[in-house]
Specification:
Helices cover 40% and strands 15% of the residues.
Length: 397
């Protein structure tokens, strides 16, 4: 292909109007909740790539040795959970390696750890920017996407009320831009880890199970979970006998893993966890949902144990939101209490990012610009004599 025709993503005027309105609506919502805007960089040191989808390690939480991981990140970064290259790496004139941001939470956390933490209360930040992630050829997924995110950081940014603040603001942000038909699934990174441990999954198998869930490959997921039946833990490499489990509990947890992608109703999920003997691990989730009930936002949330984010730093609640008309998540986030320690200042934190492009698709604004009135419809017809021409150019980008 002629390099003159290779480029990133264009947003034509009608598309740009939609996205600017979404970003403006989210910004107003965050500001009314006491969040202050920062502008994150587009280029960061390659070392930060280890903390996003490109890094080695356990997706259920950060390694306790952030420094040693950073030292070796150049060897490992650039690959997601499936080993596929995802980062764009830039070589500077003085020989340093930089990467285009594939995740905005990490640079924001680094900035907060070094300059913005306050002893007087939590630090509330929001931002917008573009993330860059290389995709598999033929996947049809764009390699750059607009995001608007918010982070709650600091010693007091912990507990049920802090989680409820982030979750309620996530829902209110989507409502503020006109999206009302959405559902946010909620889980906990520690909960899946507890289930896998009780089921006798060894670290490498557990990581592959998380990876399959993260990319929603339920065929591979089913095969991996079934392998826990055929290979008792005592026969698995590196097995260490646990005094906390018994054979019956292990079998119940394997059965729970098999049902996990299909569990939906709150009562059904909690009963399944109790039956498997891991109900205590979900107590925090139940308390968070109760807090959302008190804010009259419970209709937008449900328990979804199959949620496991592709980022390695989550340590507590994790969530993703979906809406009709869009195949990708419109929002995602969670708690990452260990991440700031990697930048020299330990503090709990939680946050999320809204995918602006997915929200635009869910709103149907790109397919029916007249819904927006004024700006978008006028721009589309003023620039292109034929709507067909407009759609042809848009489809190429």
């Amino acid at each position: 292909m002629d390099n003159l025709h290779l480029s990133g993503r264009y947003y034509l005027p009608a598309d740009a109007v939609v996205r600017r309105r979404i970003e403006s609506g989210l910004s107003r919502t965050f500001e009314t909740r006491g969040y202050y805007e920062i502008i994150p960089p587009m280029l960061v040191g390659l070392g930060l790539a280890q903390f996003g989808p490109d890094g080695p390690g356990n997706s259920g939480g950060m390694s306790s040795s952030c420094g040693s991981k950073a030292a070796g990140c150049a060897e490992h970064s650039g690959h997601d959970l499936e080993g596929e290259c995802t980062s764009y790496v830039v070589l500077t004139r003085d020989g340093h390696l930089l990467t285009l941001c594939s995740d905005l939470t990490t640079p924001v956390a680094a900035l907060a750890a070094r300059h913005l933490l306050s002893a007087d209360g939590p630090t509330r930040l929001y931002y917008s920017g573009t993330v860059f992630r290389a995709q598999k050829p033929g996947s049809g997924k764009p390699e750059e996407r607009r995001q608007v995110g918010a982070e709650l950081i600091g010693e007091s940014a912990t507990g049920v009320q802090a989680d409820a603040e982030i979750l309620s603001m996530a829902a209110e942000g989507l409502i503020s831009v006109g999206l009302h038909d959405f559902c946010i699934g909620l889980s906990d990174a520690k909960l899946l880890a507890a289930i896998l441990d009780a089921a006798g999954a060894q670290p490498d198998t557990g990581q592959r199970i998380r990876s399959a869930l993260a990319v929603r490959d339920y065929v591979l997921y089913g095969e991996l979970v079934s392998s826990l039946d055929s290979a008792p833990p005592c026969c698995q490499p590196g097995y260490v006998r646990s005094d906390t489990g018994d054979r019956g509990r292990r079998e119940r947890c394997v059965d729970l893993l098999k049902r996990l992608p299909h569990l939906q109703a709150r009562a059904e999920v909690l009963e399944a966890l109790r039956t498997a003997g891991v109900g205590e691990a979900a107590e925090g989730l139940v308390q968070t949902l109760d807090a959302l009930d008190n804010r009259s936002l419970n209709k937008y949330f449900r328990l979804d144990l199959a949620i496991t984010r592709r980022f390695r730093y989550y340590t507590g609640i994790v969530f993703e939101g979906y809406a009709p008309g869009c195949g990708n998540a419109v929002i995602g986030g969670g708690r990452y209490d260990d991440l700031l320690a990697c930048f020299g200042a330990s503090a709990p934190a939680a946050g999320f990012a809204v995918d602006v492009d997915s929200v635009a698709s869910a709103l149907g604004a790109l397919d029916e610009p007249e819904k927006l009135g004024g700006g978008a419809a006028q721009w589309g017809w003023r620039l292109w004599a034929s709507p067909t021409s407009f759609e042809t150019v848009r489809s190429r980008h």
